[in-house]
Amino acid sequence: MIKLRLLQRYLMSLCCVLPGYALAESNENFQRWVQNFKPQAIQAGISEPTFNLAFANVKLNERVLELDRRQPEFTRTFWQYIDMTVTPLRIERGRLLRQQHAPLLTQVSERYGVDDAYLLSFWAMETNFGSFTGNTPTIEALATLAYDPRRSAFFTEQLLYALRILEEGHLNLEQMKGSWAGALGHTQFMPSNYIHYTVDGDGSGRKDLFNSLDDVFHSAGHFLNRLGWRAGQDWGYEVRLPKGFNYALADGRTQRSIDDWAAMGITTAQGERLNQQTNPDTAAALLLPSDYRGPAFLVFHNFNVIKRWNNSNNYALAVGLIADQIRQQPGLVAKAPADDAAMTRDEVIALQNHLNRLGFDVGRADGIAGQRTRQGLREFQVKQGMPADGFPSPRMLKVLQQIPTSR
């Protein structure tokens, strides 16, 4: 009995000691990685004094690894996301800042061909007009992610660019704090974009996205211009679909002219003819960010440019909707359904498993509702005589759960 108690105490002591030991061992391996990385940085043009200063107090950041590996429990619905980002307070703040910085914004808009409302909208979305730019040490975050083998090549490249920012004197080490993934400044540029697209708008000799709004706005305008922004074109607008519409066309990728969409019975959200608002030859895609009961949008080339900044439909829609309302244009006409609810990852897996069992091949059930899952769901909806919007939701999961698995 005494021996058993001693063994139990020993095992409990190991539980307390091993996590700390593992962390110490990991940090020791990380420090060896830093020393092995040093010649690569020197070869890339980073001086030894800059490297030594940058890494003087760097350690493996477990919190960064945790955030990078974290699987979200649920994904916000379109309505939840819009309610959180396109707020009256944010729009009013954007309008005030538009007036306050009018001369600078006009100069930037004329130079790069980007309407000032979009510059303000990106600023709002990235850091709430600069109110929070992040507080994670950039070198430590990027070194941690570069050490982690999952995406080492990408983050090693970003780490080298971050060291270049220090080497070239644009920022000092104390200023280099941002998101856990290494994004910097009011516009949250990754270091590679910081080097390639940031502009010294105030002529100071430095590119400073933390303290110079001249640099911030010029850099945002330059970046969007280089991404392919078309001057004078909007992102898109909300539309109304006719009854019996073929939702298979609403995939966000199928391009038609405005005239073609109008011929299918689509109008603006206010019921007006489409070609009264936009050149009838303009190419547009039809996008449904939620199910068939929610809003529909015709989106143009610049919508895809926004997605090159952040590859998310909801993000791009929020940028567009904020920009519209900063310019005193109306907000959304459609209203959220009463049963709007996010899906948990487990629910998405369950939906995928049901589709697979019913013979609609969506691949491995991974909890990510990608194009393959949406296509499988659309095929199921067609077979059931339902509006084939292909949108995964708790409502559709309930429908699937009621279908016998044998066909």
From TrEMBL:
Keywords: Signal. Residues 29-324 form the Transglycosylase SLT domain. Residues 345-400 form the Peptidoglycan binding-like domain. Pfam families: PG_binding_1 (PF01471), SLT_2 (PF13406). Coiled coil: none annotated. Residues 1-24 form the signal peptide. GO terms for molecular function: peptidoglycan lytic transglycosylase activity. One of its GO terms (biological process) is peptidoglycan catabolic process. InterPro entries: Lysozyme-like_dom_sf, MltB-like, MltB_2, Peptidoglycan-bd-like, PGBD-like_sf, PGBDSf, SLT_2. PANTHER family: LYTIC MUREIN TRANSGLYCOSYLASE (PTHR30163:SF8), MEMBRANE-BOUND LYTIC MUREIN TRANSGLYCOSYLASE B (PTHR30163). NCBIfam families: MltB_2 (TIGR02283). This is Lytic murein transglycosylase. The lineage of its organism: Bacteria, Pseudomonadati, Pseudomonadota, Gammaproteobacteria, Thiotrichales.
